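Supplementary Methods, section 5.1.

A reviewer requested that the exact input to the structure prediction be made available. We therefore reproduce it here, unchanged from the version used in the analyses.
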Amino acid sequence: MKKLLLVNTNAEKSPYPIPPLGICLIASFLNGHYDVKIYDGMFDEGRSLGSVIHSYNPDFIGFSIRNVDEVVPERSTFFIQGVYRNFIEPARKFTTAPFILGGSGYTIFPREILDYTGADYGIAGEGEEPLLILLQKLERGETVTRIPNVYARKGEGPRKLRAEGDYNLRPYSEIDLKLDFNPYTDRGVYSIQTKRGCALRCLYCSYPLLEGRQYRLRAPQAIVNEIEEASERLGESVTFEFVDSTFNEPKGHAEEICKELIRRKIRVRLRTMGVNPRNTSKELFGLMTEAGFAQIDVTPDSASVTVIKNLLKGFTIDDIRRTAMLIREFNFPSMWFFLFGGPGENRGTFNETLNFIDNFINPNDLVYMSGGLRIYPGTPLFDVALKEGFISDSDNLFKPSVFYFSKESPQAVLRDWITEACRDRLNCLPSYETNAPAEMLREAVSTRSNQGLTEPMFRTLLRLRREWKISGKL
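The structure derived from this sequence is encoded token-by-token as follows.
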């Protein structure tokens, strides 16, 4: 049986380390077809990759690329440079096996990243079926043109990406069985997908490009089976995170997952990103509370009627207000994310969002404030930026990163607004200062251990931030 080495090149640990769900799903799918081994670079950061290649001697190597950059204008970290320097370039010294790229970051700039790294092939979008076909054709020495989602170093890539298969027929990721999960237990999470695809049309978002525009739902029974099996293996130390772009889309699916968890009396710690204000309700939050959710993330991006409409968010200011009031009613620890600078943003719309933060969000909850929208090809924002003359057809959006700012909230001005707003609101953080000081983080870890705290880490840090402010340490 031919050997395939899958390499997780993501070593970003802020705000917490994310286990490589994608390549674990690939490994599960290919089980029985190939001998698959995973090298997780999150903590080793490529240092022992050469010795792994030498001892395993793979016939093929796949590199998963999660992000291109930090999506923060003030920080210019270009992750692809580190991927090449720490993983791809050293690996080439130990093997002549074909190199195959994939992952969400790769999907956004497939041709550019293939050229930059000198890899042999790349798979944009979903990778299970395309990778299997590619490997089988390479093994037989056949031509690899016209495989869905596959790019080759020479020749044209696919004109359109395809989302394949019934997601319910896919095997579980079994992340903890495929790599050493121990380093993730302190600050990390166990990632769970409940569906693929996104039918929303948010102006800047690349998610529909990655997974398609139609929802493909997993059955609640299968999702809960996966959680139950993993929790039995790992015990109570693990937090399960639903990593869908929006957990409560389409309406009713999240409710059924919670009902299944409750019906089976499975006691686990849960969190989710991407709660969409459009479909929040007392029923949903009541079920989430009973199911064991300890934290949710809410991503309205704005609380200005004008900007919400221009960002094509699909919900209203009343939806956002209802969501905030429900969060306070159910006492859900929450992180809120606001993204300023989109079409129509000005000082007035910025102040509308500040007024919402002051009047509706619990001061014990964390608010991230970002400025500037990363422009990705294929998104509606690309067309807006092109029409406004913000970019041209010949611009390279790959490197350096290109961000959109409305004419009435240019980058320098918007940064001043955000800095001023965060100075007066201790629960608000600008995106360029999201990491807590090392001394504060150490004190938070010690406090949580000594007091046996189970609250989300951000609430511990916010409390320390206030104490430091009063004492003059901040």
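The radius of gyration is 22 Å. These observations are discussed further in the main text.
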